[in-house]
Amino acid sequence: MIIDSLQATPVSIPATRTCAWAFGRSYGHTRTIIRVRTRDGLVGYGEAPGDTASGLMAKRFVSRLVGASALDRETARRLGLGAHRDFGYLADPAGAVAFAGIEIALWDLFGKATGQPLYRLLGGPVRERAPFVAYAYTVALEEGHELEDVPSIMAGIAKQQVAATGASIFEFKVGRHPVETDIETVAAVHEAVGPSVSLAVDANLGMRIDDARRFLAAAGHMLADVEEPVATLDGMQRLRRDFGVPVSTHCTDPEKIVHYPAIDNLVGDINVDGGIGGCMRMAAIAASMGRRFWLRSNGETGIGWAPLCHFGMACEEADRPAQSLITWCEDDLVDGPVWLVRDGGVRPPDKPGLGIALDEDALERYADLYRRRGAFTRFDAP
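Given the sequence above, the corresponding structure tokens read:
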């Protein structure tokens, strides 16, 4: 199969609930939908975060990849990115993120060419369904809420989401509101979901070390994981040793994280960590270091959500439920029912490749929204 064309379409899709977190808030997500077409008429779908991938597709990847084999993913990676990545100015993170979206499309094409679902190409199912947490952003006070209402609002969301998803873990944002409010919120959520559901929180590096200490001293006994409570790996390690609460980080560089053995868990990203294949390798590396590995969610449409589901089916090391934001997306751009988390997870259909079909009308609708309003950012004003 020879690549005949690449097409990238930026879309802006509103969220069904404001995305409020430590450093800002957003009202939706901007993603780039990628289509790779072969000379024999097959089309593979991929997705990248933001809108940068669209410009890179035309300026860089089309000339390098058209005419290459769609089945030789590593050859395509070298053609698109080169053999090595620099540590500094030439590190090219934007190119790597964009290519990961292309890599998803190449996996989709491989599945369609062989008639196999992606999870079988990754080695076959190791569990009945890909496990996911129930996940929620915190409350945006700018919408008229009072600070004292945050704990009860989040407790209500937690109870509803756990009931809907059947998830064994509820994960939510902290670090935006005062520490006292976060402590009260953890207590309220813990009471709402009961002892059979574990709690995890994500501070997005947003707490000062003293605030993180106060938070963990009061709420740590109710938490199964705290993701990036402070902005340094050394600070995370010290908090883990002082309070005994498992800590996770998005730092997936083995040469860095090896120096912080107290950090328990690594949270990967398909677009950041070398695509689907890169995350399979990273999960194995994490396991060899005695760490758990799971994937973050980043406002994907159904195209970007599908590889998370296939990965969770096939990656033996990814036994801890991954993050999930598909519930809060206004439209997933995919024909048919949304792959919502039910009974604690998602089982992709036994269809070739990603197992999805693009909703062309929805794609055009949200591409038009992107053209009219531009990109959603993490710091949008109302």
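The longest strand covers residues 3-21. Try to locate this feature in the token string yourself.
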